[in-house]
Write a structure and sequence with these properties.
Order of helices and strands: HHHHHH
Distance between the termini: 55 Å
Organism: Lysobacter antibioticus
Structural class: mainly alpha
Low-confidence stretches: none
Number of strands: 0
Shape: elongated
Number of domains: 1
Radius of gyration: 19 Å
Transmembrane segments: 25-45, 57-78, 90-111, 132-157
Strand content: under 5%
Protein name: Putative membrane protein
Keywords: Membrane, Transmembrane, Transmembrane helix
Length: 158
């Protein structure tokens, strides 16, 4: 009879990138301060670094944020064109794009936080994410302002 191995569902898988893992609060702050492009990419990398068992769900949320933003923009522009939303209604409706991005970032944060705490408890040494967060917020946000991006790409990354 083969021996089965007991495994916790939230147990992080070992990764060669674990020396680059940070507390998930830093990518969340990057989404808030530097834009979803930088923050969501950092969330994706961090899920690999800590060996998150919920990696697929996290990447699904990241993809939903990246693909849902232009779809929402298209839907809102269609509503404006048909006259269904105008003026202040349209400006409030555009906040749904921001809500989607922040909601998905918070969902990824909650998924990663559980795994990160277990990873850290069993000896994982996280890096300080503050310097990169500040760099992304100052330099990354400035780069978005200096470069003229296509509207669709701007909606996804900012």
């Amino acid at each position: 009879m083969a021996a089965s191995v007991y495994r916790l569902p939230d147990e992080p898988l070992p990764s060669g990138l674990s020396r680059y893992a940070v507390d998930p609060v830093w990518p969340l702050l990057s989404v808030m301060l530097a834009g979803s492009g930088f923050g969501l990419l950092w969330f994706g990398f961090n899920s690999l670094a800590i060996g998150s068992p919920t990696r697929r769900r996290e990447w699904l949320c990241i993809g939903l944020s990246a693909l849902g933003s232009p779809l929402l923009l298209f839907a809102l522009l269609l509503c404006e064109q048909n006259g269904w939303l105008q003026g202040a209604q349209l400006r409030y409706a555009f906040l749904s794009i921001l809500l989607l991005k922040l909601g998905m970032a918070y969902a990824v944060y909650l998924m990663q936080q559980r795994c990160f705490e277990i990873w850290e408890y069993y000896g994982g040494q996280p890096r300080n994410g503050l310097p990169l967060t500040i760099l992304l917020a100052v330099v990354g946000r400035g780069a978005f302002g200096a470069v003229q991006l296509p509207a669709l790409l701007s909606v996804i990354l900012q």
